[in-house]
Amino acid sequence: MNLSGAKALLKSLEYEHVDTIFGIPGGVVIPIYDELFNQDAITHYLVRHEQAAAHAADGYARATGKVGVCMATSGPGATNLVTGIATAYMDSVPLVALTGQVTTDLIGNDAFQEANITGITLPITKHSYLIHEASEIPQTIKEAFHIASTGRPGPVLIDIPKDVQTTSARFEYPKKVHLPGYQPTYEGHPGQIKRAAKAINEAHRPVIYVGGGAKISGASEEVRALAETIVAPVTMTLMGMGTLPAEHPLSLGMLGMHGTKYANYAVTESDLIIAIGARFDDRVTGKIASFAPNAKIIHIDIDPAEIGKNVRVDIPIVGDVKRVLQKLIPLLKDTRTKEWMEKVQTWKREYPLEFGETGLKPQYIVREISRLCPDAVVCTEVGQHQMWAAQYFSHRHPRNFISSGGLGTMGYGFPASIGAKIGRPEETVFDLAGDGSFTMNCQELATAVAYDVQVKVAIFNNGYLGMVRQWQELFYDRRYSQTKLSEINFVKLAGAFGAHGIRVDSPSEVAPAIEEALVVPKPVIIDFRIEPEECVFPMVPAGAALNEIIDAKNGRV
Amino acid sequence: MKHTVSVLVQNKPGVLARTAGLFSRRGYNIESLTVGVTENEAVSRMTIVVTGDDTVVEQVTKQLNKLIEVIKVSDLTKESYVNRELVLIKVTADSSNRAEIMQIVNIFRARIVDVAPKSLIIEVTGDEGKLDALIGMLKQFGIKEIVRTGTLALGRGPKVIQSGKD
Hints:
The structure holds two protein chains of two kinds. By secondary structure, chain A is of the alpha/beta class. Chain A folds into three domains: 2-170, Rossmann fold (3-Layer(aba) Sandwich); 190-350, TPP-binding domain (Rossmann fold, 3-Layer(aba) Sandwich); 362-529, 3-Layer(aba) Sandwich (Rossmann fold). In chain A, β4, α4 and β5 form a beta-alpha-beta unit. The N and C termini of chain A lie far apart (71 Å). Chain B is an alpha+beta fold. Helices cover 27% and strands 42% of the residues of chain B. Chain B has four helices and nine strands; from the N terminus they run βαββαββαββαββ. In chain B, β2 and β3 form a beta hairpin. Chain B starts with a strand and ends in an 11-residue tail after the last strand. Classes of the chains: A alpha/beta, B alpha+beta. The A-B interface holds A 118-119, 122-123, 126-128, 130, 147, 179-182, 303-305, 307-309 and B 9-10, 13-14, 17-18, 21-22, 25, 55, 58-59, 62-63, 65-72, 163-166.
């Protein structure tokens, strides 16, 4: 069967079970959009900025576990995807980005809307392709989805020149891929698993440190089983939140820069860290030399390059964390952690997360959202509100907290929430946002309204780029250089796009506003006018050790 | 410390950029990089000399292995290996010192590949020590230009680095 490149592309996407694409058309992808017009297997969501297409595909992927797909034209369309691709790369999100390219005879000539997007995205993609012939399309799509979704997932970019889209070639979808250089290790080495079991059985003060890899691998049950078998506390990174429910007695919540004091104390005093699908990021470890100074470290990860990258590891296990844990757990005994757990529980009682009473407190708002819609999918932007969302929402499910952790992309949450809601339409999806972050992609209100994607946005409006302001307050003598934001009427903004807006100024209005947002059958923005100079505590200053924590009481360094 | 790393890659466009780019963006220092096709046309072999301690080289190796088109990476420095580099050196020479230069060239088993009234081009292969020694000897005559291929290396003995079934 002969098909045009554009048709072959869509047919190949169908073979990969793609039913959702986020994108914007442009000059060199018109042949693909023309084919989209003729079919109904794939729904294309027209966004208003390509960055949002990448973030929406990313949010869709994180919420569903499927590969997210976005599409853009050449040049500016493709470069607008870059932030979204980098975001997905840093958080290991399976994403396929399709870009149009100028015709093959013009490549390299600085043609109109030409950009070398495979070159630009080289360091932020797991792999990329520039297709030269229509006949390469099926094989390339097959490989791209395989690479994006297996091993340590990540974004793959496919650049398709316009003439390739219009040329005909024989179409046959390949049954398998042939990638001699790509063979991820899934099964952990049995000898290493035995060594890990021995170390765990001998430990007195173990701490389980869980990252995003546990979610990706679908290992929530195994993490819980591990913790309950050996009776060890579990702390999670931003990417790992929800792997063990926050209410679980063994959960210590988040660790690191804005982690709980008890999680950071536990890590510091531990004699064995069991790292699961985590990468010892600087926001997690604080000063490396003081990180868990007396602990042996077991590191389980599918990516061998993560092992030994930031910290010395005593027992590395390369493999899929779910499979490794399934092999490891039967080898474990009930360890002697009684004393240790008592100590951890004491810290938990002595140093709870807490906040003041005056004014409209962001932490209170997060708790109210958590109380009123405990099973909501929560997306966030980046900054203070993101940390409050991590700290104060009672995370229950692994794929329900969606946040740009590695790259820290402001403007991520809102388009990601649209993608998440499209992926899981039956569920309540909240974007917790700052006023600064939300404005970075607020044009997507148009998309949400156009497709009736009823996401609920809670803006923690403090009139500042709050996290930078906090650093300026604490470390730059309150010189608020370029962090004060001008006033925006978000209720009117919502109205202008056809969404619903609510403004909240006092604590008593919080619950009614959330309830209203949940029942209004529209995208909704709640503009919470929070205490403008509220800080995120506890906080470990950058470069300090995890037990050098400042909080609201000792605060103001 | 210097490590000589041999990398088998799929012979595809962009693979050199991908590999070399990895070094610069992760902050590793490449001393030299050579690339050419192997006994199997679909596969190229890169020889990369990188400086750094064992941790750095371990990271380099792991990051290289993550590239989809990289088939195999091995650190030759861990075992016994042969390494060679080819250098062309243009030296100032006239009738007064040509004989002396030729004598040095013979001692080093190098060759003269071009003669002109005021210059010579010398071709030499060898390991780094030999090349440095020859260049040192030629300095007194005035070196006008040098071009080097970068290091090539193969492990000694019957063991080979294979690309698999490809």
